[in-house]
């Protein structure tokens, strides 16, 4: 009776965990995600010094980041399936070690193919093992259902805390000691991901509650997802999310350099994005527990597209860039807690990492095009005008699609919910 009363008073942790245990596990997941995403979102700062020093084009560097994103997308469902079957700890440790190795190879790179393999393919696999899909599974296991969207939002916010200090750190070291030393600074951050992975991996000991009467297998769950129209719409809209965000993180520094801005402005803009996303991820996680998630997702896509169109149309200044960064930061990763929350709501959490990983593949196809096509358009036309016009236009279309998404849980989940109500 005492345990049941405590759980009722503190709904932010699982019945089998104390509040301190839940907080420490979530902190490990958040730190791991923060460092992985912070470094990844700061790689655009290396474009100009790397292309200048080793004699490759902007399109070559952009292609490497595009490969990173598509490999991340391809690897994420497999990493998610391994996590759902074997747990998070060893997958996350492998990801941290691979991340460090990739950064070391990048620091010694002297050709485009080395950048593509290291900062492209290797970091792509490392991200699949250390970021939102794995962190979401950890959060889903250690918090109670009524607080899941908020927990997803808090963990997602950690991804931007990393950008808040990784971007200025990278730019400062690049200016003071060169881009190779900045890469080795990132190697030290990758090493710090390992103890964080150990902390977050303690979620593996928390059992997943079985659904009464539900014969749930990965095969049956994948079949449900394939037939669910709302899941398909959400995954398609997620494509646009990836395109918009990676286009900005990859090409904003070069765009600002073309405008004659101080090189530190791009790092400041990325830091502002990171700082405001802490608030935005928490906000949309909190709202997701209270309001219609597809409405919130549609609003994010529509507001992002409006902000992109307005910023690239008006004259660029330090003030307009930082205001734009603040708006985009508020809307940056707010999608993640809403998507994770919808998957958990529709399908349950047993195969959450697998299903979010499949949706994330769509996101990363968009990321591939955002990074690579942005570089191609810039090389061919000498400006980013067509790229931002496309990013804004398809973002608006995705926002409208998302507003009308079907959110009905599967028959299996509905039956389990009815059985749980009857048992009470």
Q: How would you describe what is shown here?
A:
This protein is globular. 81% of the residues lie in helices and 0% in strands. α2 (19-40) crosses α8, α3 (47-54) packs across α4 (58-86) and α4 packs antiparallel against α16 (352-381). The protein has a single domain (16-203, 218-423), classed as Up-down Bundle (Growth Hormone, Chain: A), CATH 1.20.1250.20. The chain is mostly helical and 424 residues long.
Defining traits:
Growth Hormone, Chain: A, 81% helix, 424 residues, 0% strand, disordered N terminus, 18 helices, mainly alpha
Arithmetic mean pLDDT = 85
Task: Compute the number of strand runs.
Answer: 0
For the record, give the distance between the C-alpha atoms at the N and C termini, rounded to a whole number.
15 Å
In the CATH hierarchy, the third-tier topology is known as Growth Hormone, Chain: A
Number of helical segments?
18
Can you tell me the residue ranges where pLDDT is under 50 for at least 5 consecutive residues? 1-10
Q: What is the CATH-assigned architecture?
A: Up-down Bundle
Strand proportion, as a percent range, falls in under 5%
Strand-and-helix sequence, N→C?
HHHHHHHHHHHHHHHHHH
Give me the Rg, rounded.
21 Å
Summarize the topology.
Layout: H1 2-9, H2 19-40, H3 47-54, H4 58-86, H5 89-107, H6 112-130, H7 132-142, H8 148-177, H9 179-200, H10 218-227, H11 229-258, H12 263-288, H13 293-313, H14 318-331, H15 335-347, H16 352-381, H17 385-403, H18 411-423
Helix pairs in contact: 2-6, 2-7, 2-8, 2-9, 3-4, 4-6, 4-16, 5-6, 5-9, 7-8, 7-16, 8-9, 8-12, 8-15, 11-12, 11-16, 11-17, 12-14, 12-15, 13-14, 13-15, 13-17
